[in-house]
Each structure stands twice: as C-alpha cells, then as structure tokens.
C-alpha cells in the first residue's frame, strides 16, 4: 500500500512538472510566433490534458439572467454514481482542478448533490483544487459545516451592488439584500476555510458602475470580470432561451470598465476573445462543449467514449488557457488566506 501511495505521489509530481514545463513552452511559442504561424505549431502540440474542467452538471436555475449563456434547455442531471465515475475518468486523465457550475449548483437536492461531489473529489480523488460557481442565493451555513472543509474556492456571481440593476439583469433578490448576502457568504468562507471569489459579467446595465469600494471591502482572492458573451443557441439565435443582444458591450466599453477598476489588485479580466475557447466545459451528460463555431456543439460523453476521445472534439485552446492565466494558485493549501 505504501509503495502504491508513493508511486501515485511521484506520478502526480512528475505530471505537475511536465505541465509547468509545457505551460512555459506554450506561452513562449505563442508570444514568439508571427501571425499565422500558430497553425503550423499545432502539429507539434501534444494532446490536451484536462487540467482544469468546468462541469455544468445542471442547467436548472432559480434566476433568469438576460445574458445567461448556459440556459435551462434540459432538466437532466446524471445519477450521482455516474457523475463520480466520470470525475474519476477525468482525474485519471490528468485533471487537477474541478469547478462545479450550472445553472445553479445548489438547486439540486438543496446543495447535497454538489456537496457529495465536492467531498468525493477532495477525499477520494484527492484533487488539488475543488471549486463551485454559484449565484449565492441558496447556500446555507449548514452546507459549509458539512462540506466546507472539502472546498477550495467558492465563486459567487455579482454583477451589481445596485438592486435596480440586478432587477434589470434578471438577478433581483426581492426582499433579500444582495450585498448583505455576499458579506454573509464571505464570512462563512472565512469561518470554514474556503477561498472567496467574485465573478461579474460586464454588460450594458452595469458597465458604468463604480464597484471599487464594495469589491475592496469584500476583499475576494480573485475578482473575475467577464465581458458579456453571445453564444448561438443559448443566448442568441432562433433556438435560444435568451436574447442577450441588448446586454452586449463593445471591447472599448469593457476596457473602460477595467480602467476604472485598475486599482483593484485581485481583478482578473476576461474579454470575449480570451474566454471563448479557453475553458473545458462539460455539460450535464458529461459531453465536452465546443464553442469554436460560436455555439456549443457537444462531443460524445466521456462516459461512453472516454476522456481522450471526447476531448478531441472539445475545441479547447490550451495555449489560450495558459495565456489567460488559467493555471494559478488554486489550492487553498497553497493560499495565504486570512482566517
Ligand atoms: S445565475 Fe447564472 S445560471 Fe442562473 S440564470 Fe443567471 S447566469 Fe444563468
């Protein structure tokens, strides 16, 4: 058993070293390449490793954000044991970070489903990083008590600190106060040892907002700022559940928002160009979603054909993943958190 464990540890260390080396080489090649040379290099590119995976296990959500780009087109959720089998396949293929997303992850079994997956990934698969993206409206303290120890990062979506703007976006909290809710979640993260992150989508209705003070006061480990993105079949086009055109902003508007918040040190910007193909996205059937054509085309499920076969159809831009800083300090064990 001891020998098995040390071999596993050695393999993990070797994989990390190779990944770091590949990361350095990939970014060097990319920056040095004259325009048009990238395609030639792809011949020498090794097969993508699913280092960091976003598993959107549900499409159901209690909100109706007008720009949502992963909409409730189905109510399917895999049985827990099948989801675990898929996660094990991903870990065997090199996954180090899993992010659970939706839809709203805390909707399924009032957070028990995602809690069990989080626990499985940390305890059984021993993944260095386990995170969740949530709109934050359904998380209870008892969830942190039971599962907080297994979670590295909780990212909460917050597009505005103004209730009227949240209503316009589709994230109105009714009688609840969004800022108070964020503060409560931040506090629970501190108490239960989870890194707290904020995600914001910049769109027509919040692009002029000054969020400097509120973000600094909440002091997240990362503030991910996305430019509102159109995806055919999700938030634009005849078969879509949303019409997000009225939310879209120009690159210049996005740059202006970033400039106004340049003093927020934890800000991580993500333009449309950086965002589109640099995420490995798994849908509720554990199919990789390929966004290169401007819509989400599914591969076959990793549960049917395995990770290596399915990932070929993911459209994943591994170089852009490293270039946008997709590999960062993502394990809470390596973070200097103040709790
Ligand atoms: S909270 Fe997220 S998943 Fe839910 S509707 Fe809004 S953008 Fe979509």
Characterise this structure.
The structure is a single chain. By secondary structure, this protein is of the alpha/beta class. Helices cover 37% and strands 15% of the residues. It is built from 13 helices and ten strands. Strands 7-6-5-4-3-2-1-8 form an eight-stranded parallel β-sheet. β3 (129-134), α5 (141-147) and β4 (153-157) form a beta-alpha-beta unit. 40% of the residues are buried. The structure holds iron/sulfur cluster. Iron/sulfur cluster binds next to loops. Its cofactor is [4Fe-4S] cluster.
Summarize the structure.
It comes from Varanus komodoensis. One of its GO terms (molecular function) is 4 iron, 4 sulfur cluster binding. The protein has 339 residues and is of the alpha/beta class.
The overall strand count is 10
**Widest sheet: strand order?**
7-6-5-4-3-2-1-8
Using only C-alpha atoms, the radius of gyration works out to: 20 Å
- Average predicted confidence as pLDDT: 85
The low-confidence parts are 1-5, 26-43
General shape: globular
Strand share of the residues? Answer: 15-25%
Q: Output the helix-strand order.
A: HHEHEHEHEHHEHEHEHEEEHHH
Main sheet properties: 8 strands, parallel
> Helix content range of the residues, please?
25-40%
Q: How many helices?
A: 13
Which small molecules are bound?
Answer: iron/sulfur cluster
Structural class: alpha/beta
First-last Cα distance: 35 Å
Protein name: S-adenosylmethionine-dependent nucleotide dehydratase RSAD2
Pfam family, one: Radical_SAM
InterPro entries: Aldolase_TIM (IPR013785), Elp3/MiaA/NifB-like_rSAM (IPR006638), RSAD2 (IPR026372), RSAD2/Viperin_antiviral (IPR051196), rSAM (IPR007197), rSAM_sf (IPR058240)
Family: Belongs to the radical SAM superfamily. RSAD2 family.
